Amino acid sequence: xxxxxxxxxxxxxxxxxxxxxxxxxxxxxxxxxxxxxxxxxxxxxxxxxxxxxxxxxxxxxxxxxxxxxxxxxxxxxxxxxxxxxxxxxxxxxxxxxxxxxxxxxxxxxxxxxxxxxxxxxxxxxxxxxxxxxxxxxxxxxxxxxxxxxxxxxxxxxxxxxxxxxxxxxxxxxxxxxxxxxxxxxxxxxxxxxxxxxxxxxxxxxxxxxxxxxxxxxxxxxxxxxxxxxxxxxxxxxxxxxx
Length: 242
Prior knowledge:
By secondary structure, the chain is an all-alpha fold.
């Protein structure tokens, strides 16, 4: 089953690479290079997380601690860099982040099949939102918060991720109702987690948290959907499945 799922992932990446070729072929070389760099680093990250889950999910738990820790540093760094402006906003953000971070850590302790299911849905939604957004995204959703987020991207990525949930159903022991609700919740939390991380940056008037990951705007920029989505899975499991 894991081998089949990995083949599906590689197929998605091939489709993504083809889409990026058509998206970038008429762009300026520097712009195209940045896009390909982002795609390549994303490929490495997805493979790293995928194998940390399937080989031994304990490794994934260590990675979640790294993600949460670096993300916290990024939040504090922007606050300090602003000379401690927006104190109320900062402390509210830290409390929300801490709750989501605890949820993500608890998420890393469930079965590796459930982790893998949620991780793949989040990754597919995130990657195909960018691709479909660049291909068909004309309507901006919240341009002042996340300029690149479009209605076409969210709908396109959401439909592909939602359809993929049925392909990945053998990973989880849920009935169809639970599968559908869990998937919709993952898409919802992913969307708002992404917007929340972007909103925090805008409040402190920066484009990126940092450039630690090539082509991405920091750990929170890359893992905001995973943090929020992982927390949702724990909420749903504890409220409706256990």
